[in-house]
Amino acid sequence: MSVPAWIDSPGALTPIVSRVDPDLRLGVDAEGDGLYRYRSRLCMMQICGGELEALIDTLALDDLTPLQPLLGEDGPLKVLHDVSFDAKMLDQRGLSLGRVFDTAVAARFLGEKSTGLAALLEKYFEVQLDKKHQQADWGERPLDEDQKRYLVEDVRYLPELAKLFEARAAELDVLEEIDEETRYAMRRALEPEVEREPWTRIKGARDLSGHALAVLVALANVREREAAQQDVPPFRVTGNRVLFEAARRRPRTLAQLRKIRGLRQLDDAQLLDALEAAERDGVPQEDATPPPPAEERAQRKAREKALTEWRKKEAAERGVDVQAVLPGHCLRDVAKIEQLEDEALASVDGFGNKRLARYGSTLLDVLRAADAA
After folding, report:
1. Which of 19, 42, 94, 196 is the most exposed place for a label (fewest CB within 10 A)?
2. Domains and CATH numbers, the chain
């Protein structure tokens, strides 16, 4: 196997495009540093196909647009594993993906018990990825030889894995469904992120009320500001569990807060600020969307149950995974349609023309039966 090219200059980047056969499957992966920075950056990009194996130091390059012809719809087939993260990272640098085969989607639709890349490489190629690098800081330089080896291994087998999965998918007639789900995942990945208050990301937060919730809100806000200032993820300032336990004790004095282990990265001024904010601001008022009427909820539940039962039976008859028949997000959206017509099914994001042709009338009958029961 050839030594991978290390690309860290504009002059070395452009020739990559001309070296790639458009008929190849091209393994692609992106690495960020979200475990170490407040806002993740695209740190590395790996490309592998045919005779080409390249590690691209994206931090060293101001302009990555020479890669767009390779990555776009007119380039070769790109093989990625769980495209959502990669699409988001590449979008940060002005790159868009087109013509993609996602081996994670394929693994799910083909009924693989373990769909992680490490498990699939071990199963099909007897390759073991070194797990110690899975949480590496890819923003640090220089990378050692072990890290470079891991980066190459992460993409080297993707083209061959895609070839195996494509053959099985063709036999089961789910290639179009895999493509539809991959495109859906890419669209969702590029949707603007909804800004959420820091406290809403803490497990159990909605079980608190009164002063306890006010303290949690204030501590979460203080932690968020400190994380942004240090340029680290919030969990590296202090963990969610620490904040939750601190709030649950309903502290009202600095001395009470200081007894709680895990808050040491926040100084006295920050903790006092949190206590004052809790007293001053109280419990947040959420602009929550009211739940639908009870009758509508009951109808939706009955529809989802009927669709789930039909999906299970159809998957068994076809010998495919239930997600290939109807992904969970499609099932929930189909259960919500008001007009029982093909046009309503066609408007469900990720449903696709193949399912509409194969299942359209059947699904409408399932919904009608559920409504009449």
Report:
1. 196
2. 5-189 (3.30.420.10), 198-281 (1.10.150.80), 294-372 (1.10.150.80)
